[in-house]
Write a structure and sequence with these properties.
With 111 residues, chain A is mostly beta strands. Chain A has no helices and eleven strands. In chain A, strands 2, 4, 5, 9, 10 and 11 form a six-stranded mixed β-sheet that branches. Chain A has a five-stranded antiparallel β-sheet with strand order 1-3-8-7-6, with no helix packed on it. In chain A, strand 9 and strand 10 form a beta hairpin. Chain B is mainly beta and 115 residues long. In chain B, 0% of the residues lie in helices and 57% in strands. Chain B is built from no helices and eleven strands. In chain B, strands 2, 4, 5, 6, 9, 10 and 11 form a seven-stranded mixed β-sheet that branches. Chain B has a four-stranded antiparallel β-sheet with strand order 1-3-8-7, with no helix packed on it. In chain B, strand 4 and strand 5 form a beta hairpin. Chain B is elongated and about 45 Å long. The chains are: A mainly beta (111), B mainly beta (115). Chains A and B meet through strand 4, strand 5 and strand 9 of A and strand 4, strand 5, strand 9 and strand 10 of B.
């Protein structure tokens, strides 16, 4: 049972434009949501998180939006840079219980 | 603030041996989680420790065990190593920030190769 889903395995965006990565979840008990960036053979790098009492959190070029009624969250990166090219994972937790990770979206930012 | 550190970074063991991996969390973080990462299975949760107590456990055999010390440092042990235990083992420490955000930071991992 995949509780956290990233339905787009890949995304290609031009440098300078906005990248939007999507994530859906099924467990209504999730109250924390995190986004990670990952390169092969390395650990995930924490980017940004949001709690269920908020619908938006931003940090620099990264903004996360949460729509609880739709059980959907998205990560916006603007402007996108070539260095953003990596695999992005969303993860969810219920009351800081173990993180449940999505399957990842590979983002490629081209010049 | 220093990040999560893991030692050793690389390890080669033979089947049947046992191994101990170490993790030092970010200062002030009391929760430490361990994950196994393999190309085929992705990131799989092993267990989580909070204040020296195992709070959560994933679906791994009893050969995988861990502990946490009073200074929040954690170790995980794998006994009777099998070839399939070859993986990147990641440690993560987490906390709730003053603004109510949950953050979990990963270390660089220990690459274990079992021959």
């Amino acid at each position: 049972d995949q509780q956290v889903k990233q339905n787009s395995p890949s995304l290609s965006v031009q440098e300078g434009r906005i990248s939007i990565l999507n994530c859906d979840y099924t467990n209504s008990m999730f109250d924390y949501f995190l986004w990670y960036k990952k390169y092969p053979a390395e650990g995930p790098t924490f980017l940004i998180s949001i709690s269920s009492i908020k619908d938006k959190n931003e940090d620099g070029r990264f903004t996360v939006f949460l729509n609880k009624s739709a059980k959907h969250l998205s990560l916006h990166i603007v402007p996108s840079q070539p260095g953003d090219s990596a695999v992005y994972f969303c993860a969810a937790s219920a009351n800081t219980d173990k993180l449940i990770f999505g399957t990842g979206t590979r983002l490629q930012v081209f010049p | 603030k220093a990040g999560v550190t893991q030692t050793p970074r690389y390890l080669i063991k033979t089947r049947g041996q046992q191994v101990t991996l170490s993790c030092s969390p970010i200062s002030g973080h009391r929760s430490v989680s361990w994950y196994q990462q393999t190309p085929g299975q992705g990131l799989q949760f092993l267990f989580e420790y909070f204040s020296e107590t195992q709070r959560n456990k994933g679906n791994f055999p009893g050969r995988f065990s861990g502990r946490q010390f009073s200074n929040s440092r954690s170790e995980m042990n794998v006994s009777t190593l099998e070839l399939g235990d070859s993986a990147l083992y990641l440690c993560a420490s987490s906390s709730i920030t003053g603004t109510g955000l949950y953050e979990q930071y990963f270390g660089p991992g220990t690459r274990l190769t079992v021959t």
